[in-house]
Amino acid sequence: MIQRRLWKPSPHFGFLIAIALTGCATAVTQDTATNKTQKNSIVTETTKGDQGKTDNTSVHEFHLKNGLKVLVKEDHRAPIVVAQIWYKAGSSYEKNGTTGVAHLLEHMMFKGTHKLGPNEFSKIISANGGRENAFTGKDYTAYFQQLEKSRLPISFKLEADRMANLNLSEEEFTKEIQVVMEERRMRTDDKPRSKTYEQFLAAAYVNSPYRHPIIGWMEDLETMVVNDAQQWYQNYYAPNNATLVVVGDVDPQEILVMAKKYYGPLKRQKIPALKPQQEVPQKGERRIVVKEKARLPYLVMGYKVPVLKTAETDWEPYALEMLAYVLDGSDSSRFSKNLVRGQEIATRVGAGYDLYSRMDDLFIFDGTPAQGRNIKELEKAIRQQIEILKTELVDEKELNRIKTQVVANKTYELDSVFYQAMQLGTLETVGLDWRLLDKYVDHFRAVTPEQVRKMAQKFLVDDRLTVAVLEPQPLTEKLLSNKDSGVQHAH
After folding, report:
1. What is the CA 333 to chain-centroid distance, rounded?
2. Which of 89, 124, 350, 458 has its CA 20 to 30 A from that of 24?
3. pLDDT for 432-461, tens place per residue?
4. How far is residue 181's CA from residue 177's CA, in Å, rounded to a whole number?
């Protein structure tokens, strides 16, 4: 089912971040790791101490002979551990006609192996005091468990088992595809803003796979068969297409021994090569209107922008990130100060940018006009704020305040072992080096007012813009009794 995005590089995604991932609920016999090593074991090891300016722990990188990458980060503040297995297999890897198969297989991964029955994985984790789940994004699918550290072998044993021995039965598939379709109805089809955002992405992109919803188009779900899921599993679920991330109260060498025991025997597979997927250049502004039964109008605006992996210069994504913070990083940011409280044009308005995507992405604005205001006024106000950034340099004091806030946030984020693992897994799976985490604060601190202005001038232009407007239609009595809360839903 669709849930809140489990992490975000910036605090300004608002409503949109809620539909950035899809996830499914799901959780083993206790096992104990031994010190025996397998033949399919380590090839290389890289250790990086002093993880960034805000962390003194180490990240250890190992490579098994079957291609599995293992990242281990020590955090000894509590006797817990998070284990995440990341596959390079998100919705952007799908083909027309089978959209949603990545998320559907995520559901099926909890439906049993040759050794375990349906949902037995979850029951075992729960019986051992742990929590677990999974999520699918545009660029990856990941599975995680958080356990008391002595229970970690249970996670390894179960994840290695379903990496190689998934039982994709017709009976379980038939039930689960219905679950996913109902999930889509509840989280997208019955949510006007979600539906608008989905149509917005489809209009913004022509040939980029980012135009497809992660949960899939309903038409594709209705025609999906178990063989589609089987093929996806065979294509992408292999050790040489995965990264194992472990963060917590652990010893890296013990984790290596454990990884060799459980994952080492698995065979590497041939992974399908992806065709180049570069979005065709946009030649002018695009606009759509979505008519849905809703209480309030809703506006989404998106400009095509580069990300860390695609930018011409390495400072551009950080300057775009700073631009988002200037407009919508806190209650003192310009949108809150000027559009919500000052002019009272919007009840809420946000700006969002994710520099950690696999391909060029969108710099997005979204919002709802205040009572007595309309969409045209809201769009005009957003555009005015953009124009100010194009013509006036951000004050150094304002920039320094944001930098201080961001560095503080980066420090607080390290309180979560889960979030630390998310950072490592995301970068590795989208094709970036985890060592970029070390450089984020320095790059962000180095952003200048002139660079922010250059980004606004270069990328926030009409030829890169797509606009979607939700035009409310009259509500029935039944809909009036239901609160339209967008997609602020969690697992």
Report:
1. 24
2. 350
3. 999 999 899 999 999 999 999 999 999 999
4. 6
Q: How far is CA 384 from CA 339, 351, 394, 428, in A?
A: 10, 14, 15, 38
Structure tokens at 43: 């090839």
Within 13 Å of residue 1, how many CA atoms lie on the same side as its CB? 15
Token pair 């025996």 is at which residue? 36
- How buried is residue 31: exposed, middle or buried, by Cβ count under 10 Å (0-12/13-18/19+)? middle
Residue 44 has pLDDT above 50, yes or no: no
DSSP 91-112: GGG--TT-TTHHHHHHHHTTS-
Give the closest residue to 31 by CA, choosing from 267, 266, 262, 245. 262
- Distance of CA 209 to CAs 92, 198, 311, 485, Å? 5, 13, 19, 28
The string of pLDDT tens digits covering residues 290-322 is 999 999 999 999 999 999 999 999 999 999 999
| CB 57, CB 392: distance < 8 Å | no
Alpha helices by DSSP H, 110-225: 120-127, 152-164, 170-184, 192-204, 218-223
Tell me 27's DSSP state.
-
Per-residue tokens: 379: 């769009």
Within 263-373, residue ranges assigned H as helices are 316-328, 334
User: Are 26 and 119 in contact, with CB atoms under 8 Å apart?
Assistant: yes
Pairing of strands 361-369, 59-64: unpaired
Distance CA 148, CA 130 (A): 7
Ranges of H-type helices in 339-468 = 375-391, 396-413, 417-429, 436-445, 449-459
Tell me the CB-side half-sphere exposure of residue 483, using CA atoms within 13 A: 4
What is the number of other CB atoms lying within 10 angstroms of the CB of residue 400?
11
3-state secondary structure of 293: strand
Number of C-beta neighbours around residue 311 at 10 A: 17
Residues annotated as catalytic (active site), given as ranges: 106
Quick one: which of 73, 44, 6 has its CA closest to 434?
73
